[in-house]
Amino acid sequence: MSAEHLVITLDGPAGAGKSSVAKALASKLGISYLDTGAMYRALTVKALRLKMDLSDEEALTTLCRNTKLGFKEMPDGSLNITLDGEDVSVAIRSPEITNNTHYAAKTPGVRTLMVAWQRAMGQDRSIVTDGRDQGTVVFTDARYKFYVDADVEERVQRRYKELIAAGKKVDLDQLRTDMQDRDQKDFNRAVGPLKKAPDAITVDSTGLTVEGTVAKIMKLIQL
Ligand code: C5P
Prior knowledge:
Blueprint: E1 7-11, H1 18-29, E2 32-35, H2 36-49, H3 57-65, E3 69-73, E4 79-83, E5 86-87, H4 95-105, H5 108-123, E6 127-131, H6 134-138, E7 144-149, H7 152-165, H8 172-188, E8 201-204, H9 210-220
Helix pairs in contact: 1-9, 2-4, 3-5, 7-8
């Protein structure tokens, strides 16, 4: 790994602002952004289209092994996830996918493949990566690790506003229940659970804008 090779990990619960912050941070630093949640979501899109039994871990692992995930650079510099060559960046955000991605996330064989792909993507390029296990499992020797958290009600409100802005119909109580359920599953699974790496710095984004959180992180980074 060269001296210029920089890996920054952002882990944390849903709605903490990780992906917006990671994207803005990567753009500020002029390096790539890796959205690892999009990868688990994309596999779930494929499995649901095939009407697979999502609790069949062997079948899901085989499906994952035979799947090509990629990222396509858009004119504005952002990266859209591709599933076997198809841009599925809109499909992965549906509530159905959000609420079913935990099956892929808890399947050991799927995680092994995803971890290997993520490491390969960070091997020869500098990245800001966001997910649940980036600092604890995937990039254990990352130069900077952050655990991004925020007050639970603020996380729910942020996600609510995001969905409303995207033209979705959302029931706030249902969203709160779904998010709490998703966090519990992320915290409690046997493989790659969400947890703060011992050497990660906690960044509380409560009350902060994306720019405010990025500024807080930039102060902690010495390049
Ligand atoms: O980050 P995002 O909300 O898009 O992630 C969707 C789901 O994918 C998470 O709730 C989690 O179950 C799973 N995930 C994961 N490991 C990662 C990233 C996401 O298990 N590194």
